[in-house]
Here is the input.
Amino acid sequence: MSTLHEFHYRLPHRVGGWRPGSHPGSSLGGGQEFVTHQRLYDRPDPRRLDIRASLRDLRGEWLVRVNRQRASIPVHVVADVSASMSFGVHRPKLHVVADFVDALGTSAYRAGDSLGMYAFDRRERLDLFVPALVSRGVASIMSAALRTCTGGAGGIEGLQAVSQHLAGRQGLIFLASDFHWPLERLGAVLDLLTHAFVVPMVVWSSAETRPPEEDSLALLQDAETGAQRTVWLRPKLRAEWRQAIERRREQLEHIFTARGLRPFYLGDEFNSEALSKYFLEVAA
Here is the structure.
């Protein structure tokens, strides 16, 4: 993946963790962000001795500088691999997600963060699990698995199983799905992931969101059941199509906004600049 596809991410809050990285941390250590002075007796680290501050101290104490450590975070991709994700105009939606994973691999490696993946359809896909690793090549493994996998019927049950592994853990989670399943239990799943920063990535092909401009006869097929139906796309039906998309978008944004989350929409191509802008806005 070319560095032109790299994007830059940052979190809107400090992160914990002992491993040094590029994100503002909450732990004290050998970082560059000055916090306070402490007595050399309380923090015996002569390397941090501040002579000027010690000479000004009214009590005559030797003082050392205490800095805040920058930290790394675990980054996980939670990918919906159900059959509906194999739909697309020129390329399957799952291949667009794979392009994003390639770019994420470069970005995470440069930031010093570990990267892993969970996948689901109606169940958790253990065959696609990749543990979080700090490795330049882990993203290639993940994207190749997404491009070649075969998905089953969709449902939130698989996402519920995956969320149990990530519940209570800090880090960054990219939840990539078309969300073409009932949304009643989505809020409860997101509540399990409140310790992490979650980026909902809504993957919609333009063929799903934009009906044809003119009347036409269309053969429609359900990607998961294989059922086919021939319909005449008259003006009323096309208007209902657009209204259904808008209702779905409003439902999703209501669920995400209620939990302080902002969705990122993936179309027919992955746009790295748009995702960098997304993080600049949410972290401002």
Summary: Residues 28-68 form one domain. Residues 90 and 209 are 15 Å apart (CA to CA). The helical segments are 51-56, 93-111, 138-148, 156-166, 186-192, 206-209, 235-257, 272-282.
